[in-house]
Specification:
This protein has helices at residues 36-53, 60-80, 124-131, and strands at residues 3-4, 23-30, 84-91, 98-104, 134-139, 145-151. It has 162 residues and is an alpha+beta fold.
């Protein structure tokens, strides 16, 4: 079960700037105590709460992509990283971007394998890379890593020319 660490509200450098504070949700747990489905559902509830406030428009497609990314990243953690792990989601009110960070105790970075339709499994980072604007992996000082994925809201559809 995920243990909430953060809540909606200003944190960090945004609190003194004119840029609206990001809306954040964080959780941490020991490996094996959460499933990809649990994490996906928690992120879905967080994004639904943001939509309900009316502060930020979170299009359905963006919410679905965020849940897909969380599912893939948490699956990697569950399969490859024993020990303490965490998940953070941040929504920027100024541009609607969603940033997802997953950290764990394994120093081994995830690898994006080349596409292979015959392979069963191993497509997680390929999927994450396809739906995200950017994906970064950062080594953590003690041990472990943080994988951060940034999703941008979908571009508006152009009006019909006909």
């Amino acid at each position: 079960m995920a243990v909430p660490l953060g809540h909606l509200g200003p944190q960090g450098p945004d609190r003194h700037s004119r840029t609206p504070a990001a809306l954040r949700w964080d959780a941490r747990w020991h490996s094996g105590a959460i499933s990809a489905a649990d994490a996906r559902a928690a992120v879905g509830r967080f994004l639904d709460r943001i939509r309900a406030t009316g502060r930020v428009a979170v299009p359905d497609r963006l919410a679905q992509d965020a849940q897909l990314v969380v599912s893939e990243l948490i699956t990697n953690v569950v399969q490859h990283a024993p020990g303490l792990c965490g998940l953070g989601v941040e929504v920027r009110p100024d541009n609607g971007q969603v940033e997802i960070s997953v950290w764990d105790t394994s120093p081994v970075p995830p690898t994006r394998r080349p596409p292979d339709g015959r392979r069963v499994g191993g497509h997680g980072m390929e999927i994450v890379g396809a739906v995200c604007q950017a994906v970064t992996v950062t080594a953590l000082p003690a041990s472990g890593k943080r994988v951060t994925a940034r999703l941008a809201p979908p571009a508006p559809c152009p009006p019909d020319a006909g």
